[in-house]
Amino acid sequence: QLYREARECLTLLSQRLGSQKFFFGDSPASLDALVFSRLAPLLKAKLPNGKLQQHLKSLQNLCNYCTSILSLYFPWDRGESHLPPHPLGLGQPVPPDQLAEAEEDPHKRRKQLLSVLVGLAAMLGYAFLSGIVSIQRGSVGPAGRQPIALEEEEEEE
User: Which UniProt keywords apply (predicted)?
Assistant: First the structure.
């Protein structure tokens, strides 16, 4: 029944899209992003049961819809080139020689360590300021005879 309802949903989407480029005309809307996010994996992924995928592939306008969005908004993912997107999100692929240079950043470990230390300092600062952790000074006597703050408070009561 689930497959039947999914096939029906795909058919209705196909009918609604018709011959338009996007669901609401010539420019994409949030509905297009939502529909594409569901259709593209279904169309492109290798699935153990391909019934729904075969039905989607039979709806040519939905396949063309996914292909046009992929080529328009993900130009580096055409299957010919396996270059990752530009690290700054500019939509241009990074040439392999520049990618190797970026990965061999000589200060990468130092930056990672600095990030960890800043995060640790922030967490400790929050713990001290919120009262989760506090430091109490006390005199240390012979082994096993250290004063316990809780017992002292009980004695005062």
Answer: Membrane, Transmembrane, Transmembrane helix
38 inside domain: yes
> What is the rounded CA–CA span in Å between residue 36 and residue 119?
37
Q: What distance in Å separates the CA atoms of residue 112 and residue 105, rounded to the nearest whole number? A: 11
* C-alpha to C-alpha distance for 153 and 138, rounded to whole angstroms: 14
Beta carbons within 8 Å of 77's beta carbon, 6+ residues apart: 70
Q: What is the Cα–Cα distance from 114 to 108, expressed in whole angstroms?
A: 10
Q: Is 147 helix (H, G, I), strand (E, B) or coil?
A: coil
**Which amino acid belongs to residue 26?**
D
Instruction: Please state, in angstroms and rounded to a whole number, the distance separating the CA atoms of residues 26 and 46.
Output: 31
User: Is residue 103 in some structural domain?
Assistant: no
Q: How far apart are CA 31 and CA 37, in angstroms?
A: 10
Q: In the numeric block, which tokens belong to residue 140? A: 């240390």
What is this structure's pTM? Answer: 0.48
Query: pLDDT digits over 95-121, tens only?
Result: 555 555 555 677 788 888 888 888 888
Domain tally, the chain: 1
Selection from 57, 66, 56, 85 nearest residue 23 by Cα: 66
